[in-house]
Amino acid sequence: MDFPRILVLGATGRIGSILRRVWPAGQGLWQARPGRPVPGAAADWLWLDPLADAAALAGAAGRAQAILCLAGVTPTTIEAAGSGAAMADNVALAQAAVRAGAAAGVPVLLASSAAVYGAQAGLLSEATAPAPVSDYGRAKAGMERRAAGLAAELGVAVTALRIGNVAGADAILGRWQEGFQLDRFADGRTPRRSYIGPATLARVLAALCARAVARGDLPELLNIAAPGTVEMGALLDAAGLAWAARPAPDSAIPEVALDVTALCGLVALDPAAGRAENLVAEWRDMAQKPGS
After folding, report:
1. How far apart are CA 128 and CA 196, in angstroms?
2. Which of 11, 111, 145, 283 has its CA at 20 to 30 Å from residue 204's CA atom?
3. Distance of CA 60 to the CA centre of its chain
4. Taking the alpha carbons of 193, 140, 105, 30 in that order, is the dihedral positive or negative?
5. Each residue of 36-46: b (16+ CB within 10 Å) or e?
6. Nearest to 227 by CA among 272, 281, 168, 279
7. How far apart are CA 226 and CA 279, in angstroms?
8. Which of 65-74, 157-166, 218-227, 257-266 has the lowest mean pLDDT?
9. How far is CA 128 from the centre of its chain?
10. Rounded distance, CA 174 to CA 194, Å?
């Protein structure tokens, strides 16, 4: 399957950085806000504000075959001094992407999050009703709901991607420092999460975009992770990074396990891709690739 030209909104973020390192040159059309310094060839970049210039965004979408919206607001964004960002921007950015997709007649894939599931136990499928416990999770759940409504109104194909933890773009490998601590539960285990390696994520997103263009049969919701879960302690151990255990508070979530049956029906995934040693290997390999 040929890789289509993809307009990537929010291309300066962590996932955008991964895609720029892995995807072939010329396949991504990268969006950044005006005045934002970016690496690479200027011909592959667009400087526009999706919330302020709908016409420019629609024009950019017309140069691509699909839109991948990574643009959004996270707790880290909110904490950034003078960012002026608000969680409500997650809805506005998604709706801007949907409108641009409708104007250009191209499918739209929206980056959501496993945070929409909250603290629910068991294997979480796309049919599991959202039950977010954080402002971020609530914002993403609202984004999914509002984007789906607008997509139905405008007649454009939209898929919300509920992405699990990404090795290296997470709070464990990505933010490790000396004295790092992890919650340990009464059963002796550290938090278990669905993870995906950065290279695997890049390949999965490419394949999903290509399928959306060629076949148009993506579901409205799709979990994105490698099969299984990994303990955060095991991940740090595999990376050779020291950590100390602390008693898990009552608010800590022991496990977030994404059911990736639907994803595996669309994209071939290595059953071992979610093992700690393989996630660490992908993370280290990504760190050696040129780009930022």
Report:
1. 20
2. 145
3. 21
4. negative
5. eebeeeeebbb
6. 272
7. 10
8. 65-74
9. 19
10. 16
Do residues 82 and 132 lie in contact, with contact meaning Cβ atoms separated by under 8 Å?
Answer: no
Q: Residue 178 corresponds to which amino acid?
A: E
Q: Which residues pair with 214 in a beta bridge?
A: none
DSSP 102: H
Please give the single-letter amino acid code of residue 253: I
Token duo for residue 73? 């607001």
Tokens of 101: 């997709």
pLDDT digits (tens, 9 = 90+) for 38-48: 766 567 899 99
Give the model's pLDDT for residue 74: 78
Q: Which of 96, 104, 16, 124 is nearest to 61 (CA)?
A: 104
Backbone φ and ψ for 32, nearest 5 degrees, come out as: -140, 155
Distances (CA, A) of 206 to 53, 107, 157, 175, 201: 27, 13, 17, 26, 8
Q: Give dist(CA 235, CA 25) in Å, integer.
A: 31
| Locus of tokens 């993403």 | 140
pLDDT digits (tens, 9 = 90+) for 12-31: 999 999 999 999 988 999 99
* Token pair 């796309």: residue: 126
Distance separating alpha carbons of residues 104 and 28, to the nearest angstrom? 17
Question: Model-level pTM?
Answer: 0.94
Please enumerate in sequence order all residues whose Cβ is within 8 A of that of 128, keeping only pairs 6 or more positions apart, or say none.
Answer: 117, 120
- Other Cβ atoms less than 10 A from the Cβ of 7: the count is 27
Residue ranges of the alpha helices (H) in 36-161?
A: 54-61, 75-79, 89-104, 135-154
